[in-house]
Amino acid sequence: MSSSNQKATPKAIEVPNPMQSLENERRNPLFSVKEMTTFIDGSSKNVALKHAIFQELERDPNWIIDDYPNISLSELRERTMKKVQGVADKLMNESRSTFMYRMSLISVVDPGFWTRFGVHMGLFLGALQGQATPSQMNYWVQKGALSLRGMIGCFGMTELGHGSNVAGLETTATFDASSDQFVIHTPTSTATKWWIGGAAQTATHCAVFARLIVKNKDYGVKTFIVPLRNPQTFELLSGINIGDIGKKMGRDQIDNGWIQFTNVRIPRSYMLMKYTQVSSDGKVSEPPMAQLAYGALIMGRVTMVSDSANTAKKALTIAIRYAAVRHQFSTGPIGSPETKLLDYATHQHRLLPLLAQCFAMNFASKKLNTEYETLSKNLEIAKSPIETKLVLNDLKEIHATSAGLKAFCTWATLNIIDQCRQSLGGHGYSAYTGLSSMYQDFAVHCTWEGDNTILMLQCGRFLVSSTESFLKGKDTPKNLNYLKKASSENKLSTCSSDDPDVVCGLETLKEGWACVSAYSILRAHKLYSKKISEGLTQDQAYEASAAARLHAAKMHVTAYLYHCLADAVQLPECSDNIKEPIVLLALLFGASAAVQNSGEFIQSRYFNSKQINTLRNKVDDLCVKVRKIAVLLIDSFDYPDYVINSPFGRKDGNVYDSYFNLVKRLNPYKPVPYFDTVIKPLLNRSLETDDGPKLEIDN
Amino acid sequence: MSSSNQKATPKAIEVPNPMQSLENERRNPLFSVKEMTTFIDGSSKNVALKHAIFQELERDPNWIIDDYPNISLSELRERTMKKVQGVADKLMNESRSTFMYRMSLISVVDPGFWTRFGVHMGLFLGALQGQATPSQMNYWVQKGALSLRGMIGCFGMTELGHGSNVAGLETTATFDASSDQFVIHTPTSTATKWWIGGAAQTATHCAVFARLIVKNKDYGVKTFIVPLRNPQTFELLSGINIGDIGKKMGRDQIDNGWIQFTNVRIPRSYMLMKYTQVSSDGKVSEPPMAQLAYGALIMGRVTMVSDSANTAKKALTIAIRYAAVRHQFSTGPIGSPETKLLDYATHQHRLLPLLAQCFAMNFASKKLNTEYETLSKNLEIAKSPIETKLVLNDLKEIHATSAGLKAFCTWATLNIIDQCRQSLGGHGYSAYTGLSSMYQDFAVHCTWEGDNTILMLQCGRFLVSSTESFLKGKDTPKNLNYLKKASSENKLSTCSSDDPDVVCGLETLKEGWACVSAYSILRAHKLYSKKISEGLTQDQAYEASAAARLHAAKMHVTAYLYHCLADAVQLPECSDNIKEPIVLLALLFGASAAVQNSGEFIQSRYFNSKQINTLRNKVDDLCVKVRKIAVLLIDSFDYPDYVINSPFGRKDGNVYDSYFNLVKRLNPYKPVPYFDTVIKPLLNRSLETDDGPKLEIDN
Lengths: 699, 699
What we know:
Two copies of one chain form a homodimer.
Chain A: H1 3-7, H2 18-24, H3 33-41, H4 44-59, H5 73-93, H6 96-109, H7 111-131, H8 134-143, E1 153-156, E2 172-176, E3 181-185, E4 193-197, E5 205-214, E6 217-227, E7 240-244, E8 256-261, E9 264-267, E10 277-278, E11 284-285, H9 294-323, E12 327-328, E13 339-340, H10 345-381, H11 385-423, H12 435-442, H13 452-471, H14 481-489, H15 500-503, H16 506-533, H17 538-544, H18 546-568, H19 576-596, H20 598-603, H21 609-637, H22 641-644, H23 655-666, H24 675-683
Parallel strand pairs in A: 1-5, 2-5
Antiparallel strand pairs in A: 2-3, 3-9, 4-8, 5-6, 7-8, 10-11, 12-13
Helix pairs in contact in A: 3-21, 4-6, 5-7, 6-7, 6-9, 9-10, 9-11, 9-21, 10-11, 10-18, 10-19, 10-21, 11-12, 11-13, 11-18, 13-16, 13-18, 14-16, 16-17, 16-18, 16-19, 18-19, 19-21
Domain Acyl-CoA oxidase C-terminal (chains A, B): 506-684
GO molecular function (chains A, B): acyl-CoA oxidase activity; FAD binding; fatty acid binding
Organism (chains A, B): Smittium simulii
């Protein structure tokens, strides 16, 4: 083929240079990417620490991650375990806040490792911190609970037949006064501890949730530390059966297992006795209030909201950088070069509202974090019963908000990941472009530490019960002032403007989202009240209004997210330079979410049909505006290529070469191993129709 | 632990018998499951054939599928190849319709095998059938293209840098008159053939899409058969580079690969010349009309609509049977037994509208199939140009409808699978409950044979251009009569009733969906016309109205699906016994989709806000009614346990025991392989803080 042949049709087959395509997006930046990064991460100190932590990981040979699609489950588990020691040493040697930040970044790099380490650190240690007496805590720390020297813990809550409903667990811990021991026992197969992370190959001890039985009386579920393996030999201890739960959708770095206990005896002191105590003569003293287990639950949810935002950043980096590189079809006259994906309206509508949502989650996560930290401090310093009661009100609110946000944000991010994956076209289906495994790893966030549907219903229950309180003249939770206003004035406001810039304005949308949220909460409350007046119990009335409650919670959380993003502009850390992009993102998020929920907006009479059409057009305009800064916004997430771990999200745009090289490196050529045994016989087989003796029927 | 201990709290820890729980759902059935199965499958002959085919697969040792999560990629590929011969023999020995039915069932059992076989049968053979001359066809059949004896084909269309836009492909086929050969060449790395199923380990020949270059002139993309490997040795032929694309999100049964051609010479006759011909002296004759490649494209889409329905049946079987077995929390007074998941309103709202959607997809698939078969016959028998033109109009419509349905139904089913997975709680994350791999396998349906977004836009373009035609007084496509009515009368109808049974009635919803669909199409058309009047080209105007067009297509397809389900009641095959369940499902689908799109219904003025609230309440009622027959409806899908391949979807309800046994069988106990090398050193390590010489600073 001569070169002149290629020249014959230069335009049709010209492929624009990918690196140049991406670089073009960074010319004449409309805002300072660096300032945006600082704003997103919270401080320049955080940015520097992030760089340092990512660099440490990238240089550590145990932290190679780009070959994950090609290594077996057992290799993956072994490599993951090799990483534990280095991180455990950090845990011992750096401040708690630095270590927590490290873990949040590690979760973006390797979510499976995060889980494996987190089971010991978050769940096992968390159980000790929350439920052990000071001397018990001291004992287990001496045994190595903090350093992982001498012991590794796992967390034995869920059972084969029991998940979300902890009160329904079947495992028993029966007190035997004669030996001053508890007998831990798995009575049925559905009582088998199931999904226990670290049980299959890692843990020496387990924090077992079991029903406390003393003198034939069932005191409900308490926590007991049960040794599983001899730390010197790793042999299973007597009465312990353990098996591997095997392959999962994702996070195969962690060895989930099942455990059965057959009359396993532990000293009485291995029951965690901060709240409930059992004396040697079998006297059980229970705390006057239900256990304050709220705190630990909230922590996990706060973490998952931030993980949602961070994972969404990673997914969007891949999809948006690729969209600025990939050219396909042409919108110009025949013979024009192919058009960038990012220049198509549908591609913009597909990705850019999700980018705005990601920013909203980022700032919501910051707000939730701050509220949670303030609360934790207030809980510590509260002295009087009145003070404590006030703090407990805040706790209830944060519990509900964090439940709703966890559910909403993990669902939102799962959707973002899959939308991003599909936006890569066929390449999204490759294991080497990063989004399929991201989906598989992330999916479990929607289920663990509270199934999302149940959490949404909890949040909705709080909203309905708060409404009930306002109407009785009681206190207002901070983030529900809008609801109080609506329910006390007994009317919702209406947007009366026809000016598109007013209809799609920051304040109009703030009022609108508050209004729609109040509308849907009041609807759920009305239904609930109706059911109460019909004679149902509270629980039955809540169940009968479940669909409305779930919907109300979704509206409330969307409003919360929008308010966080719209309010971010007013934060002192938001420099003038970056205000405009934040405003654009807030409008895009607020308006596109309003269009998606147009029925609700019209029903509440905040917007009319015409205004909804105005918003629709505004979303088109906003997409065009945000498109111009999309790559800069992605750059401001500031994740290095090592962390993005996808040739499609490379900062330099060198997508195709690096993808091809990765595929070749991980899948070197080799002859087909089953050619002789399977394919050759197929290709060379004889058929019934081949020549041969013919069997005729005599007649 | 004595038995009296257990009696102390019998109610809290009583786990209802799973098998009994499921069996209870089948007492006093409200309709004949057998008749429903016949109706769903189309005929009792189909039902019998289905049973026979499933039985053959289940008994064939090559068709074991329950251990897939635990076998390696290379084992999976080898086992898949072992199955090819048996299926190829069926292809040779049974009718085309029986074989097609067999393949549609195989797709439910093992989608990865379906793809591996389908690449040869559907794509490679399809290319021959569509583009080879009769004597070329005869030649390749002689070589083994039908029997797979002597050759196996693959399909070389997509390239690393080019997917959906076939016209942008870079690979060249340059005619060399001196040798009467084509030279096939890969000019750049982005021109590398990519994603080619069967290339890595299976194919001897490839149907290569390449730009025909004759005497320096580019004639666009044509198809060429290029030998890849020596069938006797499987060595790559000269000039062929092939590599393995490796791990994918799913469907690892098929060996996708990449191919580069370096000046590979093939005889001129290896170009498929049904339409475009190249003579030995380099004269190119092109057909008067663009190639009728429509037919092959439609076939793939018709298949994927039916696969969507069938896969949704499988997913819903797992989720709904489990929901009838699993008990969790209690809605009754304290001490009541835990409540069935299926009895929770949120669980009903989560799954039952999806069940209704699955039925809608089933009947839409039947209708589409029938229309496609009629069309194919008409195309064959059309004699005069006028007849042909009429048939081509139908072809255009089916092309657009099938594009929209393929996109909508594959998205819908992907969502159904994930909703079902999440509804299993934590167990949904196990590889052994079947839904995670179903998601991973199914996901690619949204991308291949036309990316869903692009297909939706195509469908939308057809709707807008049809509107343009009506307004000019031209013919009406069959399924768009509602649109013609709306656009000619220049007004849409309104539902004026306040009676809940009328508002949520079959006919009201039919009219409503037609109306909302017309409303959104007219909106897209209006925007398009505005852009045209502003001086944009047709293509630019379509691009400028892309978001509205996409939305219009979604509304149109939803309307189409609803109409198919609502009309199913009138089919002669729908016996009285099963009419009521079908009506309930149609109402549930139509009403819940209307509530989801409430903004659109209110904006079009078909329903007002109050009527939407009426529908909301009706959806609650319908969920309760459908819940009563949910397990019977699932039973009527009539998939054996072998096909469902999930302990959670077992017909006998024995969920926990079979799940536990499967996990134990596939993950037998073994000592931790990296205890000595990794864990023991961690547990026994010394720390900096350990006793030892202290380093003091002199001062």
